[in-house]
Structure formats: structure tokens, C-alpha cells
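Format notes (please read before filing issues)

Several people have asked whether sequences and C-alpha cells are stored in separate files. They are not. Every record keeps both together, in the order shown below: the sequence lines, then the C-alpha cell lines. Line labels are part of the format and must not be stripped during preprocessing.
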Amino acid sequence: MLPGGIVWVLNGVLNVLQIILYFTSMIFVPLIPMCIAACMGIIIVVASSFFKRKMLLLLIFFICNDRDNWIYRSVSDEIR
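Then the structure lines:
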């Protein structure tokens, strides 16, 4: 967001309200993915609470997540 803000400031006519909103959005926009991840975690915990073998379900979620991370790391290593 910062490079876009620099270009915006250099090429535009600004007022105080726009600058305040820009800096406020720089603080709060990174919170959006964290809130989404927290909601997904709550959904997983609630879903796993209905199962008899909770640890098995959490293990499956962990394996799926770890598999995706492994794929990402292997692809990013090939690019370098």
C-alpha cells in the first residue's frame, strides 16, 4: 500500500480527510486476513468438537495444510 500511496500523493490533489483515511487503512487492512484466519480456526474447532476422535480431524487438517506448504516450498525452490 505504501508505494501506491506515494504515487497517489505525488500525482493527486489531496485533502486532509483523504490522508487520514489512507493512513487509517494502512493500519487496519492487514487485520482483514488475520480475522478471516481466526474465523476459519473457530469453524475448525467447532466442527471438530462434534466428532468423537477430535485429534484425528485436527491431524487431517494439519496434513492438508502441511501438504500445501510443502508444494509451495518445492515450487518456490524450483523458481530460484
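For reference, the curators noted about this record: The longest helix spans residues 54-79. The radius of gyration is 21 Å.
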